[in-house]
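Journal club prep, shared notes

We agreed each person brings one worked example of a sequence with its structure written out as tokens. Mine is Haloalkane dehalogenase. I'm keeping it raw so we can talk through how to read the token line rather than staring at a rendered picture. Sequence first:
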Amino acid sequence: MPSIDVLDSTIHYEEHGSGPAIVFLHGKPSSSHMWRKILPLVGAGRLIAPTSSAWAARASRSATTGSTTTPAT
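Then the structure, token by token:
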């Protein structure tokens, strides 16, 4: 999954297509993964679905602490 560093956070995102950008946002507790079946079907523009940096940080902490919390699908 591509990512970009912004200030002191890393934002991961899904991206499809080209042209004018359309941004798909998710709620809590979810991630850009919820758009995985929708993005390929839209077919117009540059489709971007970022994962909230707060949720990404939570998922990272879960991985290092052994928590069973995973992003919702």
